[in-house]
Amino acid sequence: MAPIVLAMSGASGAVYGKEIFDRLVAARVETHLVITATAQVILKDEMDIPPGYFNRAGVTVHDNGRYDVPIASGSFLTAGMVVAPCSMGCLARIASGVSTDLLERAADVHLKERRPLILVPRETPLSDIHLENMLRISRAGGTILPAMPAFTHRPKTIEELAAFIAGRVFDHLKLPQDFTPRYTG
Ligand SMILES: Cc1cc2nc3c(=O)[nH]c(=O)nc-3n(C[C@H](O)[C@H](O)[C@H](O)COP(=O)(O)O)c2cc1C
User: Fold this and answer.
1) Whose CA is nearest to atom 9 of ligand 1?
2) For the chain, what is the mean pLDDT?
3) Which end of the chain is more exposed for a tag (fewer CB within 10 A), N or C?
4) Which residues' Cβ are closer than 6 Å to ligand 1?
5) pTM for the full model?
């Protein structure tokens, strides 16, 4: 299959990005990774994860300040992009189409090419501006998949909560997964 673009921006909830990353690597999905400067700080603060963690086989780690890479172009085929966690600042910039860094440009490309773009925002409460930006992205074809894990399956750990969200992201990327418990009534 075509590669996936995974981006992490500067919101709390580094565990969501890490969980999706680990699952993509485990599934041997070719991954293009972009991590903003603030996301790198948060990965260290929340999880003690250094940048070197992401250097794995099948993973291309991009410099968020450079546009001269394949994922900045619509001619490079991908199966979709996910931004997890997605800050409100990042979401606003994607909604406005400004493409001030590689992450935003890659997201812009996914919208214009009508490919899956899944944003996993983490903020609470939400202002009218946040909500309007989400609606704008949704109307442009993106998917807003908030970091709101369910509790129906009685999760015991943070990893279980993150796995729930990772599984829903996989579902929307049409990647097979069995790590989200499926409600059977
Ligand atoms: C420790 C830390 C935690 C943050 N948590 C959030 C958050 O949960 N949600 C959010 O929208 N912004 C959060 N921010 C603010 C964003 O990082 C900032 O507004 C901006 O979007 C950063 O750009 P980036 O998302 O492209 O990295 C946080 C910033 C810091 C330093």
Assistant:
1) 11
2) 97
3) C
4) 9-12, 36, 38-39, 42, 87-90, 122-123
5) 0.98
